[in-house]
Amino acid sequence: MEKQEYLDYYYQMVLIRRLEEKAAELYQQGKIGGFLHLYIGQEAVSTGLISARRQQDRVITAYRDHGVAINCGIPAKLVMAELLGKATGMSKGKGGSMHMADINRNFFGGHAVVGAHLPIAAGLALGDQYQKTDGVTICMFGDGATNIGFFHEALNLSKVWKLPVLWVCENNQYGMGTTVERASAVVEMRQKAEGYNIPNCRVDGMNFMEVHRAAEDILAQIRSGNGPYFLEALTYRFRGHSMGDPERYRKAEEVHQWQESDPIGIFRSSILKEEIAKEEELNRLDDQALEEIQEAVEFAESSPEPSPEELFKDIYVEE
Ligand SMILES: Cc1ncc(C[n+]2csc(CCOP(=O)(O)OP(=O)(O)O)c2C)c(N)n1
Ligand SMILES: [Mg+2]
Asked: Which of 58, 103, 214, 236 would be 137's cystine partner, CB 3.0–4.6 Å?
């Protein structure tokens, strides 16, 4: 990677972090309604993956989607306005936290029903295969989603039909308040891909470079017609499942221990150690991210609410 790419990806990770810290504050002030699932701690996974995609590659994820939206190129102010339910938001204020999407950026959302987007990902990949584009669909989901029927149906067909899809399991070790050990018969999610004869591996999801390099190799393999691949990224969410989670299912020490492997800290140290950039340059990016988020909040707060007529729009596709 060129120096500028390192800086861009570092910036994206910091921007996601600042955006979500601010969103948590706004939620507590009652300015964001509904659910709010923060991605804090997992930023290296989506940033590592999406930094390796080509423009024609499609991305789809579950409800922990703010970071993915930023990585796909949606401006922070549109994400913030969507969180506040404003008409200027990415989904016109009608989707909220769990339904960020922009098909012009090949980002197909933001899905609230656990596992339900996996068959949609298989369908996107089938479309690309049928139309002979060389696009790959990157589908991200949690460890909990691997226990649901959609997952098994989608993985099976993807292998039978050799679909160009990269299945990415973000194993953050919990599905709401339930540990992987209590919910899954196998503790390594990649083992489930074995049952469908899908090649697979596991990476350190706290390490941007490791995710990025793995994604580059794997996407090239899929693009050359080898069918699906399953990547497990071992990661950890530093915050609760969603806002208001009392977190009785884990100890504060466990969270602190994982915070020592902060993905932003790891990437920052490696940039400095390899003398790619100086500390002052990174500090400047930190300040810039903070400013961008402040501007995003001002934009969102001063934007209008969607009008009542909007309720009846965007329901059916008009030809
Ligand atoms: C079909 C369905 N069942 C249950 C829920 C409630 N629910 C929301 S998130 C969640 C846990 C999913 O965990 P995981 O897939 O590991 O994702 P994470 O939240 O850890 O990112 C559950 C059970 C749901 N949204 N959809
Ligand atoms: Mg999980």
From this structure: 58
